[in-house]
Amino acid sequence: MRKAAFVYDEQVSRHTLREDHVMRPTRLKYTFELLDAYGAFRDSRLVAPRPATREELLWFHTEEYVEAVRSISDADGRYVPERYNFSQNGDNPPYEEMWEASLLSTGGSVVAAQLVADGEVEVAFNVAGGLHHAAAGNASGFCIFNDPVVAIEYLRRRGMRVAYVDIDCHHGDGVQNAFYGVADVMTISMHESGRYLFPGTGEVSELGSGDGRGYSVNVPLAPYTQDDVFAWAFEQVVPPLVGAFGPDVVVTQLGMDTHFSDPITHLGLTVEGHGRIVQALGRLAPRWVALGGGGYDLAAVARGWSLDYGLMMGVEWPDDIPEAYRERYGMARLRDGAVAPLADETARGTREFAEHSVGQVKSAIFPLHGIA
Question: Cα–Cα 20 to 30 A to 122, which of 44, 158, 215, 313?
Answer without folding.
Answer: 215
